[in-house]
């Protein structure tokens, strides 16, 4: 029996997963909530084998919760379920420690497969279309061909640093920092920081938020 907790702000999704579990004897929903704040206590109390977490919860993003649970429970299966079927969300789920990624429109067999995978292989990652997503990411990286220093500057731009702050952070002159930023704008086809970041996020060059420990 795979004891499962569902953390999703959509009541119909929680109900649907409970009904799904009831139709398959190897899965049992032992708790549910739509709140990230309530989730930690629920997981502590119910001790599930697998947690299914929506990317968008009623009180914020579910991905920090994924990271917090992974850091606390190394062998907990974590399935990220979302309506946002994009490469960047898939890779964010992977980077935050998820065991599986599945979209809400997926067939029942795929949802069950994600839960079952997470129950037996919590520290690995599976997702339908993962190979295609990796191929697209490699193509984007080749297309933009950013140097390690340019990637570093791009990350600092994402973190909201000004050019002087970037220069101080990586120990280069302000003029050199300006050159790197201008080169990034040119490669990304952008005329502003906002445009550059939108392109970088959409193509998976950077994550939405700093990775743990960075």
TrEMBL record:
Residues 3-119 form the Response regulatory domain. Residues 139-204 form the HTH luxR-type domain. InterPro entries: CheY-like_superfamily, NreC/VraR/RcsB-like_REC, Sig_transdc_resp-reg_C-effctor, Sig_transdc_resp-reg_receiver, Tscrpt_reg_LuxR_C. Keywords: DNA-binding, Phosphoprotein, Transcription, Transcription regulation. One of its GO terms (molecular function) is DNA binding. GO terms for biological process: phosphorelay signal transduction system; regulation of DNA-templated transcription. Pfam families: GerE, Response_reg. PROSITE patterns: HTH_LUXR_2, RESPONSE_REGULATORY. The modification 4-aspartylphosphate is found at residue 54. It comes from the Bacteria. This is LuxR family two component transcriptional regulator.
């Amino acid at each position: 029996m795979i004891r499962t907790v569902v953390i999703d702000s959509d009541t119909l999704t929680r109900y649907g997963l409970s009904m799904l579990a009831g139709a398959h004897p190897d899965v049992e929903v032992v708790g549910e909530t739509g709140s990230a704040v309530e989730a930690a206590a629920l997981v502590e109390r119910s001790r599930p084998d697998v947690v299914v977490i929506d990317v968008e919860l009623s009180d914020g993003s579910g991905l920090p919760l994924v990271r917090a649970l992974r850091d606390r429970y190394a062998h907990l299966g974590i399935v990220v379920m979302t309506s946002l079927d994009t490469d960047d969300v898939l890779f964010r789920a992977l980077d935050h420690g998820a065991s599986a990624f599945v979209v809400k429109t997926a067939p029942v067999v795929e949802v069950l497969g994600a839960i079952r995978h997470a129950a037996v292989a919590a520290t690995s990652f599976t997702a339908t279309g993962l190979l295609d997503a990796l191929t697209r990411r490699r193509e984007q990286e080749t297309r933009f061909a950013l140097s390690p220093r340019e990637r570093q500057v791009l990350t600092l731009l994402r973190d909201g640093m000004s050019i002087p702050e970037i220069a101080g952070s990586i120990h280069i002159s302000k003029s050199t920092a300006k050159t790197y930023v201008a080169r990034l704008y040119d490669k990304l086809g952008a005329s502003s920081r906002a445009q550059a970041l939108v392109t970088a996020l959409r193509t998976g060059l950077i994550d939405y938020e700093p990775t743990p420990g960075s």
